Amino acid sequence: MENKRIFNFSAGPSELPLAVLEKAAEQMTNYEGSGMGVMEMSHRSKVYDGIIKDTEARLRRVMNIPDNYKVLFLQGGATLQFSMVPMNLMTKSGKADYVVTGSFASKAQKEAAKYGDVGVAFSGKSEGFVRIPRQDELTLRADADYVHICENNTIVGTKWNYVPDTAGVPLVSDMSSCILSEPVDVSRYGVIYAGAQKNMGPAGLAVVIIREDLLGEAQKATPVLMEYKTNAENDSMYNTPNTWAIYVLGLVLEWVEANGGTQGMQELAQRRSGLLYDFIDGSNGYYKNPNDKASRSKMNVVFRLPNEELEAKFVKESVAQGMSNLKGHRSVGGIRASIYNAMPVEGVEHLVAFMKRFMEENPI
Ligand SMILES: *Cc1c(COP(=O)(O)O)cnc(C)c1O
């Protein structure tokens, strides 16, 4: 099979490791001698039970998840978690504090406000979301049921570089765009959730990692399928789960393990993002990253060119150079290179070489 794959900088769904796609293709019509593909299997079958258990065991190994945490494989993306988190956790004082560092964090906060008393612990909106707040800038209530953060802000390209101290209040983190990109101390969190389509696998799957003591009774009107407890008690099989995406996540985790685990992923992320930020910072202002250096994301690198005409030209020419999806999010403009785990370092080298050429050919 001739391989004409391009470097795909999409923010999500995004590039998957080629080895994963090839293995999925090889097993597409007949999974390990079962005589059928994974998509065709009963989720209650013995073969599929092996697949989902193996995926969970790998995730536990790769992320070093403590035994007192449940792993749930749900649908509805990260967005449904914006609703499920408050419906399940705003049940004691009915209060929750949200740190608003970007548009997904803001969506999560607005959704939660339907279900209880939501405090904004910090908002970076007036500054244009260019940084993550310091610990001493957070206004946290001691009696909140939880504190919510968005670990990596996919659209503006910022990332928390510390775990905030919430003084014992459970910390809930949206890790959609950085999960598996670095080691995480899961025990510091009450809930971690992520839509799979950035760093984990196909769209249509959300992974929730929840400390067992938080699996209480949800708010009264919570649909049964949206209760963490129901999903936990039924091993994510209260109804039919996204069997295919869970299987592909297993393949991705196998690939992560074979490539040095989260430590290996962190080193690669450091190299990729370092190449880009160093080039941007050394471009005499031709390319500009607007964010506070200490808050820069290693997964989503955003930058501006001297004007919008040049940005449009840059995007257009990048496609001819074998790269795709470099256009920034429609809400912020500019350029965004999403460089998740599956992006080879060569992809970023290719991009940087193009940026250098473009700057020379289009002086200001
Ligand atoms: C992409 C993304 C979402 C939305 O995910 P869906 O799976 O499309 O619902 C939420 N939060 C973050 C941080 C994201 O990057």
What does this structure look like?
The structure is a single chain. The protein has 364 residues and is an alpha/beta fold. It has 2 domains: 30-258, 3-Layer(aba) Sandwich (Aspartate Aminotransferase, domain 2), CATH 3.40.640.10; 260-361, Aspartate Aminotransferase, domain 1 (Alpha-Beta Complex), CATH 3.90.1150. The protein has helices at residues 18-26, 46-63, 77-89, 103-112, 228-233, 243-258, 261-281, 308-320, 345-361, and strands at residues 7-8, 69-74, 95-100, 117-123, 146-150, 152-153, 158-159, 171-174, 191-195, 206-211, 300-303, 323-324, 335-338. The mean pLDDT is 97. Bound molecules: pyridoxal-5'-phosphate (PLP). Pyridoxal-5'-phosphate (PLP) binds at residues 12, 77-79, 104, 150, 154, 174, 176-177, 195, 198. The site of pyridoxal-5'-phosphate has 12 residues, from helix 3.
Following the backbone from N to C, one meets helices and strands in this order, namely: EHHEHEHEEEEEEEHHHEHEEH
**Average of the residue pLDDT scores:** 97
- Number of E strands: 13
Which percent range describes the beta-strand content?
Answer: 15-25%
Q: What's the helical proportion of residues?
A: 25-40%
Number of helices in the DSSP assignment: 9
The tally of domains stands at 2
Write the CATH homologous superfamily of the largest domain.
Type I PLP-dependent aspartate aminotransferase-like (Major domain)
Oligomer: single chain
CATH class of the largest domain: Alpha Beta
Q: Give the helix/strand class.
A: alpha/beta
